[in-house]
Amino acid sequence: MNEILSLALSFVTGISLGVMFFGGLWLTIQNGKGSKRPALWFFGSFLLRTGLVILGFYFIGNGHWERMMVCLLGFIMARIIIVKRRIQLSGRKQTHSVQEGSHESQS
Asked: CB–CB of 56/13 below 8 Å?
């Protein structure tokens, strides 16, 4: 039972690391594109995000490859969920703007 709990914690930590990593990437893109020094934003963010994820995997793994694999699975699941949600949100915005445009042309 203890092993199941540690694997569940590893999975949740992997999801958290993924949300932090890809959320940080999104924030970097938003802040970097209007910045006077975008290279500093992107490089600094890359180092910080990657360093935190590597440390997270290191401490979660703690010599157990099973925990590390489950953590990686959570990380990948977070990416899939974030990308899917982002695509759905952008699809809604495009559909909404197309519907507004078609109403304006009919008037």
From this structure: yes
